[in-house]
Request: fold
Amino acid sequence: MAIYHMSIKIGSKGKGQSAVAAAAYRSGDKLTDKETGLISDYTRKGGVVHSEISLCVNAPLEYADRETLWNAVHEIENKKNSRLWREFEVALPKEFSQDEQIETVRDFVKQLTGSGMCADWSLHDKGDGNPHAHIMTTVRSITNEGKWAPNCCKTNACSL
Reply:
């Protein structure tokens, strides 16, 4: 029987966090944080079975590249206490096939990108009966002109 679990967290500069490093870890990728020059290499991390970027309609196409997206977030969120990303960690039914799990997450992510957010998500499954997804979203939405909107509390994305 599937067990429900979902947690929502905020990543911020005030906590000394990096969206680039977080995205590298969750995706099992190697990314460079242009702000600090630090390279986060998680290419040997096991258990990442699927990873993708889902963009809102107005997002610049270059944001389909994980490193470009999160470095752009660091550029716009330039205060020392800026919120960088929202993360949804969601348990997935182990009774679902991997394809069904991916489609379930993709459907959920469409709600977020429909609000103008960009989402970077990865499915983790180490075969231990705990398949789950890490969904990182931008805090700011993208305007119709393809630019970053003002902070969330000033846009419709506050309901997220």
